[in-house]
Write a structure and sequence with these properties.
Length: 279
Amino acid sequence: MLERGGEIAIPPESYFPVSLHRRHWRSVFDPSAFGEDLGANVRFREWGMPVPDLTGAADYADAVRSVFSAYAERHGARRYGDKTPAFVLHVELLAGLFPEARFVHLIRDGRDVARSLVQAPFGPDGLARAADVWARRVSRGRDSGARLGPERYLEVRYESLVGDPVATLRSVCAFLLLGYRDEMLHPEEGDTLVPEMERRHHGNLARPVTPGLRDWRRDMPDADVALVEAVGGRLLSELGYERRFPTVPIVARGRAVASRARSAVVRSGRRTARKVLRR
């Protein structure tokens, strides 16, 4: 939607600003080494552009700016953005690296998100774990946003965006200092630049803005709703979403506890593996 306004270019999911940070953030920055790693990065290669000239980059953040700026220039825009979902876990790192950055946190009802995640090829292996992913990421993003403050952080509801896109987009554009244009209401008419490997689970991008493509009230059995609400019910209530089960059935609570325990083991294993690889 924002790209349709013509002022900003937003590439496919990047990941590298965070994944390459630990290796290249040091005070003595080596543009050549960063360029080599960037050129070998799978996500960057999906952008379909060569590594730009980084010889003038003073530090890591400046080099990343140069990469995004080069992308924007190739697409006829004067500004750039990023839409990598996992960056909700790294808002404060990115905010520190890029003091000029502003963050839009798009939040959707966790029951619809959980259903979407389990149907994705990369998603968790069950609704409870999917609900846990939603709750942890949304909470992390909101906590970071509270520390950043309203000048740099804006919370937007997905349901508002599809239900009243004009009003919602106007508020987002005002926050980002972008001009609003009616073309933004028709993202399906633009080039979404979704990589080939991801197009299967982004099929709805080819459709007009459509409320109700996924609706837990219509599509989720009570047992599934109870399970998701057992995991993320407190956050759903905090966000003002209606609950089907203000008091969650005991069976659903038991399944949620077991799923959280499994998720904690998986996260611990991943942290250990990352530490070993860094060594």
